């Protein structure tokens, strides 16, 4: 096949590239430059030059074409502006999910022509079930990235390849060493999507600024400290609050008054954290009413058993088997039957 491979300069996409080259596909590498260097260069070092050095070395060694596509304007308009709007409304969005939907497997998929598939270094598997493409979890539960891909429309899955989906991170590292890749020991990015070393809190501060407000103890209504803005906090948060005498938990926040409610006894205040409503549903396979499924409420290995109840075509009620203290509007809930990803929705 003729395959367009999205590369980031990291070890995962580099190994994906080499695996496809070994299989004698006709491949070309593409780097999407969305780094907002004009807006954010004063906050951290720019990672994309280092990315490109690695990619150029690898592509030169195996003699494949490589192209840089600038999508900074589109990323700002389609991901950053939406993310900031959600944050200011008091919700907790996930920029990585929207980057996948609107940029990597959105705008790029729409613009690229003449290719049979688009490949990336995501830890996810593709399979067919009932004549439909579906996502499946990978053997590495910690690295599994189906959470970030579960809101892609069904027709996009038909276009994709995930060459490292059957591998663990340890196996990918070993392949990188076997191939002699220059980035074999490069650390994984911990920032927002393609933003490399850029921290989410710095991202929020740059675009939302600061606005002093009060921490208020939920049980007593007593002011217990000040904070730089409600948009820096999300329900269930424990770290990074900065109050003495804790541990403290974020219980709620009010965007209208800029008050953030905290408590030392979060569990006793949260008996209702077992149920929530999800809308903007995106199903690869429709769930059965009343069946017990698994749900991820954030990226990572943890899942929770749940039962779904239909409210409307685009809305469901979710009942968890165990409470989750981190539920927040704007987050994605991703549903699974065994290792098959059924789809996702947004917590309201």
Structure description:
By secondary structure, this protein is α/β, with parallel strands linked by helices. The protein has 3 domains: 2-121 and 163-198, 3-Layer(aba) Sandwich (Rossmann fold); 210-269, SH3 type barrels (Roll); 275-347, Elongation Factor Tu (Ef-tu), domain 3 (Beta Barrel). It is 28% helix and 28% strand. It has 10 helices and 17 strands. Strands 12-15-14-13-16-17 form a 6-stranded antiparallel beta barrel. A 5-stranded parallel beta sheet has the order 3-2-1-4-7, sandwiched between helices. A 4-stranded mixed beta sheet has the order 9-8-11-10, with no helix packed on it. Helix 1 crosses helix 8 (169-179) and helix 4 packs antiparallel against helix 5 (95-111). The two termini are 42 Å apart. The mean pLDDT is 90.
Question: Which key features would you list for this structure?
Answer:
globular, 10 helices, Rossmann fold, five-stranded parallel β-sheet, Elongation Factor Tu (Ef-tu), domain 3, 348 residues, SH3 type barrels, 28% helix, 17 strands, six-stranded antiparallel barrel, alpha/beta, single chain
Break the fold down into its secondary structure elements and pairings:
Blueprint: E1 2-6, H1 11-22, E2 26-33, H2 37-40, H3 48-62, E3 66-70, H4 72-88, H5 95-111, E4 117-119, E5 125-129, E6 132-136, H6 146-149, H7 154-157, E7 160-161, H8 169-179, H9 200-208, E8 213-217, E9 223-227, E10 249-254, E11 259-263, H10 266-269, E12 275-283, E13 292-296, E14 304-312, E15 315-320, E16 332-337, E17 340-347
Parallel strand pairs: 1-2, 1-4, 2-3, 4-7, 8-11
Antiparallel strand pairs: 5-6, 6-17, 8-9, 10-11, 12-15, 12-17, 13-14, 13-16, 14-15, 16-17
